[in-house]
């Protein structure tokens, strides 16, 4: 399978972390990221996302690239665990979430050690592309695109 780990776009500040929306700048920039993914021919069978508003809104911006469903899972609000791995199935799946959990998931899937997540930098709007079987050390990192690099592709 192909797995795309996507950090939510730039959000507004706020006291209620779960309710923070994307900023106008974050929305604009992530639309450019989506345009670049489209130009690269990226399509998703499924998109899993955190229930936090900024992740929901980021996932919604991916809708033109999705052949299937947008699915919410509270498991993306916390450190990765086995239960999340059970939800990673399909041909091409996007996961929209938050730091430091996405970096931990990336490390867990590629090197088998979630604690190594600090070795990966996922800026807001970044996309990591993995291939293989979703399990500890079962996937290979194919690409780690910064949002700036993707926007240049689209520009």
What is the fold's blueprint, element by element?
Layout: E1 2-7, H1 24-39, E2 44-49, H2 53-61, E3 66-72, H3 82-85, E4 92-97, H4 101-111, E5 127-132, E6 139-145, H5 147-154
Parallel strand pairs: 1-4, 2-3, 2-4
Antiparallel strand pairs: 1-5, 5-6
List keywords for this structure.
155 residues, 6-stranded mixed β-sheet, 5 helices, globular
Describe this entry's structure for a reader.
The protein has 155 residues and is of the alpha/beta class. It has a single domain, classed as Phosphoglycerate mutase-like (Rossmann fold, 3-Layer(aba) Sandwich), CATH 3.40.50. It has helices at 24-39, 53-61, 82-85, 101-111, 147-154; strands spanning 2-7, 44-49, 66-72, 92-97, 127-132, 139-145. It has a six-stranded mixed beta sheet, sandwiched between helices. Helix 1 (24-39) packs across helix 5. It is globular, with a radius of gyration of 14 Å. The model has no long low-confidence stretch (mean pLDDT 95).
How much is the average pLDDT? 95
Helix content: 25-40%
Along the chain, the helix and strand elements come as EHEHEHEHEEH
What's the arrangement of strands in the largest beta sheet?
A: 3-2-4-1-5-6
Largest sheet: 6 strands, mixed
Please report the distance between the alpha carbons of the first and last residues: 29 Å
Radius of gyration: 14 Å
Whole-number tally of structural domains: 1
């Amino acid at each position: 399978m192909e797995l795309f780990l996507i950090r939510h776009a730039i959000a507004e500040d706020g006291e209620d972390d779960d309710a923070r929306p994307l900023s106008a700048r974050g929305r604009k920039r992530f639309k450019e990221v989506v345009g670049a993914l489209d130009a690269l021919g990226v399509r998703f069978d499924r998109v899993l996302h955190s229930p936090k508003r900024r992740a929901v809104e980021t996932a919604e911006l991916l809708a033109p690239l999705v052949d299937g469903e947008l699915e919410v899972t509270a498991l993306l609000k916390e450190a990765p665990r086995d239960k999340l791995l059970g939800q990673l199935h399909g041909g091409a799946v996007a996961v929209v979430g938050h730091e430091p959990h996405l970096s931990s998931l990336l490390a867990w899937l590629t090197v088998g050690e979630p604690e190594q997540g600090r070795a990966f930098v996922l800026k807001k709007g970044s996309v990591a592309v993995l291939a293989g079987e979703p399990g500890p050390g079962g996937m290979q990192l194919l690409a780690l695109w910064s949002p700036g690099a993707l926007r240049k592709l689209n520009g």
